[in-house]
Amino acid sequence: MKKDEKKQDTPADIKKREFIEKFGKYALSAPLGGFALMTLGSSKAAASTVNENGYGYGGKYR
Amino acid sequence: LYSIASSYLHLSILANDDTVFVWSKKSKNLYSFAGCYGALFLFMEEVKSEIPSLERSFEKIALPNSALTQDIYNKIKLLLQDREPFCKEELYKPLAIPSLKEREELFGSLACYYAYGSCFILDIDSRIESIKKYFEHLLIPSQLNCNSCKYIFKLQYVSDQYYSLYINTQKIEDALEEANILSVLQDYIRITLYEKSDFCFAFHAASFQYKRKTLLFPAVSGAGKSTLSAFLMLQTDFLFYSDEVAAIDSAYRMQPLPFCLTIKEGSWDILHRLFAEIESAEIYRRLDKQKIKFLRPRHIAKEGMDAQEAYMIFPEYKRGSKLSLDPLSMVEAIALLIDSGYHLNQADDFSSVKNFLEYLEGLKIYKLLYSDLQEALDAIKGIVDE
């Protein structure tokens, strides 16, 4: 790459930077945050009301 | 949702205006980072050669100085380093059911039922045959031939009021007490029908169609979902899909799984004023010993109904509480779905995860706190009619 050539930002790079700036140190908006971790493809309480572990939708079943 | 290219080959990243979703190809876990935590992830992910320290992240991102921030920072670091903690829980395996080859002789002698794209037969021991009445609304009219029956659910008497349950030729349960039979049978039929279909994802949720809009009510057990469902079912403009599992097909359409509602003892008093049959209904039990009665569905939705919009409303009954109906973010909804129950088909495929997130993004999501059913109904109509 020549010295005067600059790597072009992709639209994804721009979006990424915008996202970081939106919640950056000097952003005007309040720092709201949230987190969730989903283990796929089902929560332990999911998929079956009568699966072999005895768990059902919404709670232990037996 | 838009994709973000990552130099970490084991990760796929999607984002919208305020949330970053990261899927690990290795663990199949889906991480949702909202707001400043989304920015934290992107900041840490940007430089592969050296993951920034938390102190450096504080200089760049407006993060709260809290234990949660520290915890999320640690999770992101492990995720980027491909060192996620080992998950002890195995992925749920759907029921293994052999295809129907034998017992075709039954086709002519037993009635055929239909739900969720499949026909099935109930081969019930004569001692407990009366439970068939709870499936009557699913009966195929006798003038229609059933040529595509996929499942036979057989309850066979063993001894001392114990029964075995077979699905096709596969023995599923071998010592079911009579009091538990209806609850277990209904669950297995429902699970079999949706799991063996081309469903994309399913939630532990009641579901209705109202004025060409789909309403989903996901909830943990005991949140008042079935009581609310029963009340909504009385309204002629609410069409019933399901009380237990809301299964969404590949066209993002809800399909009816209209089995009986299971009403727990705590709701009998409230509902017997509205449904005369509750008082005289037989008492059954769930496997956890809770007493239940079964309530037949009314105003069942038809298959293949299109909806213009979809709402996801997390109901919670709290005695004496003031009614509230507040919007939720996608991440808040995902956190609640983790508790209440979800099931993604083909969960090891990123396109399935993307479909799931796109579906959620298209929903209007609320949390409903209520103590009065009529107030809850009015509030739901209020937001949907807007």
List the helices and strands and how they pair.
The complex is a heterodimer of chains A (62) and B (386).
Chain A: H1 11-22, E1 33-39, E2 55-56, E3 59-60
Antiparallel strand pairs in A: 2-3
Chain B: E1 2-4, E2 11-15, E3 19-24, E4 29-35, H1 36-46, H2 54-60, H3 67-80, H4 106-109, E5 112-115, E6 118-124, E7 149-159, E8 162-167, E9 170-177, H5 181-195, E10 201-210, E11 213-218, H6 225-233, E12 238-242, E13 245-248, E14 261-264, H7 268-272, H8 276-280, E15 284-285, E16 291-295, E17 309-317, E18 324-327, H9 330-340, E19 342-344, H10 350-361, E20 364-370, H11 373-385
Parallel strand pairs in B: 6-7, 11-17, 17-20
Antiparallel strand pairs in B: 1-2, 2-3, 3-4, 5-6, 7-8, 8-9, 10-11, 10-12, 10-13, 10-19, 14-16, 15-16, 18-20
Helix pairs in contact in B: 1-3, 6-11
Name the features.
heterodimer, A: 62 residues, alpha+beta, two-stranded antiparallel sheet, 3 strands, flat, disordered C terminus, B: 386 residues, eight-stranded mixed β-sheet, five-stranded mixed β-sheet, 11 helices, globular
Task: Explain how this protein is built.
The complex is a heterodimer of chains A (62) and B (386). Chain A is flat, with a radius of gyration of 23 Å. Mean pLDDT of chain A is 63; it is low at 44-62. Chain A has one helix spanning 11-22, and strands at residues 33-39, 55-56, 59-60. Chain A is α+β, with helices and mostly antiparallel strands. In chain A, strands 2-3 form a two-stranded antiparallel ribbon. Chain A is built from 1 helix and 3 strands. The mean pLDDT of chain B is 90. In chain B, the strands form 4 sheets. In chain B, strands 10, 11, 12, 13, 17, 18, 19 and 20 form an 8-stranded mixed β-sheet that branches. In chain B, strands 5-6-7-8-9 form a 5-stranded mixed β-sheet, with helices on one face. In chain B, strands 1-2-3-4 form a 4-stranded antiparallel β-sheet. Chain B has helices at residues 36-46, 54-60, 67-80, 106-109, 181-195, 225-233, 268-272, 276-280, 330-340, 350-361, 373-385, and strands at residues 2-4, 11-15, 19-24, 29-35, 112-115, 118-124, 149-159, 162-167, 170-177, 201-210, 213-218, 238-242, 245-248, 261-264, 284-285, 291-295, 309-317, 324-327, 342-344, 364-370. Chain B is α+β, with helices and mostly antiparallel strands and 386 residues long. In chain B, 42% of the residues are buried. In chain B, helix 6 (225-233) packs across helix 11 (373-385). Classes of the chains: A alpha+beta (62), B alpha+beta (386). At the A-B interface, helix 1, strand 1 and strand 3 of A face strand 1, strand 4, helix 1, helix 2 and helix 3 of B.
